[in-house]
Amino acid sequence: MHVTITDNQPLVFRAEAQKILQDAQTAASICPVRHVLDRIGDKWSLLCILHLGATDTLRFNELRKQIGDVSQRMLTVTLRSLEADGLVQRHVYAEVPPRVEYQLTPLGHSLLVAFSGLGTWANAHAQEVAQARQAFAAREKSEG
Amino acid sequence: MHVTITDNQPLVFRAEAQKILQDAQTAASICPVRHVLDRIGDKWSLLCILHLGATDTLRFNELRKQIGDVSQRMLTVTLRSLEADGLVQRHVYAEVPPRVEYQLTPLGHSLLVAFSGLGTWANAHAQEVAQARQAFAAREKSEG
DNA sequence: CGGCATCCCGGATGATACTG
DNA sequence: CAGTATCATCCGGGATGCCG
What we know:
The structure is a homodimer of 144-residue chains. Chain A is built from 6 helices and 3 strands. Chain A has helices at residues 11-24, 32-40, 45-55, 60-67, 72-84, 106-143; strands at 57-59, 88-93, 99-104.
């Protein structure tokens, strides 16, 4: 998606934001956007979704290895939460040693698609953000 | 965006996720996705961005009122963080009483666009997630 | 009005040890 | 292998009070 930004064009964006906020206030007094963010805004959920989305099916320790620095406990907790939300499917095989496989549900896939925009943004603008932060720190220092 | 999900089609999603993860591992050892998520994954950042995107320019207490239940402290902290990241512009008017206005930068607008997919997903699937959670809770209870 | 400093609590997260 | 249980820790974030 290519976006050109001029002085008088942010109306497009404004409409976007207004639509989200408006839809968000329909049903309950609790904004669904905040609700979902509370769920997947934690440290590991989206990483799990990304990795599961990238590899289709993963065993517990495979997923753990891919993410790298997640503790066993937190991976368990996170996966349970995702399972409860209907985003991840858990499949236990009655074997010795045990084997447990995880994969995204259709709902999880749809979230992955919705998230892809944010993911590509992160990769595209990471440097820009880093620079902005440096500039801000410098400004603060000189004014401090 | 309309998405049809069949058994043999998740390759599309897999490619999505793989691309994000792949891009994310290029530059540094620190994944930009996680970095950005750490920034905007907190309780208030995205809400600020949404409201600023919806209204263009807002004063401190206007924004606070719109969000509703954010403490003064957290709104300040959040806005500072967003400013440091180059997502929000802060404008102080030398008046008495003081007036401080906030608005999104172009970078902030681009993030809003990237986020819109997630926002609409949240609104569209909030109910589905709620149902899944209920079903999960019921399952857990019966299995005890 | 907008913001900073201080205190403090609770939940999120980690480390470690044990189990089916 | 894939957890569960327990304890320790850390930090987000709320409450309050003061300031320019």
